[in-house]
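# nightly structure sweep
# worker-07 picked up a monomer target from the shared queue
# config: single-sequence mode, recycle default, output format = structure tokens
# input follows
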Amino acid sequence: MRNVILLNGAWHGSWCWTPITTRLAAQGIPSVAVDLEGHGLLARSPEARWQRPFDPAALATEPSPLASVTASSAADVLIEQIRTIGGGEPCVVVAHSMGGVVATAAAERAPELFDHLMYISAVAPVSGRPAASYFALPQNAASRMAPIFAADPSVVGALRVDGGDPGVHPYLRDAFYNGIDPATADAAIALLTTDFPMGIAAETLPMTSSRYGVVPHSYVLCEQDQCIPPDLQRLLIGEIDAASGAPTKVFELDAPHSPFLSHPDELTGIIASAW
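# output follows
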């Protein structure tokens, strides 16, 4: 029996998949949510995040304890997670947002472990350029991400957010949780990891048609996404098509960036279709 493995995106953790694992279990579909390296129980926070009195300048300059994490190291962690959960058998891997970078790298390294790779509003850098380069493209112009950052990534080695700052909460809700009820959005914000390692976004990943290209795949396009705009998602889908040599099966969902919270029933149905 194939297992479904759910991989979070930047600043999130395995916790974000709880509405989905519950619904998959109700359908008899085995699933496990895992933490992306540097996130959830694998997270490490800068000391300044917890110092009192709080010093925003210290948070803006302290090097990230996750600065050594790369897309390759995170892919190795994911591969080991898939191998452990599936007992060496291929699994359905579902990757959200920047988790798509890591899942893409893992699919190239160990395609035999992937029964299917489903991207959800995800970045998949298959064209020979790093994920970070997509942020500067015209297709990303509508992104609402800029106001959330608490530090210069070139200084600290991470994309840093301060979820403890009430002033940034409206921007986090806008980018990640637009349309989601405020209580749920606030609960999610309280669980966000401080640092997303720049090493994941900055690494260029080689892709080959004989490895990554043979993995069956699909993409959930979130039409109301204000983090990774639909125009950028469509560009990424086109690049995945070219890298795999086959059209990507696309599911369009009238949802924001976090459909596991806004549209759990619809998203569960889509994931079940790949199982």
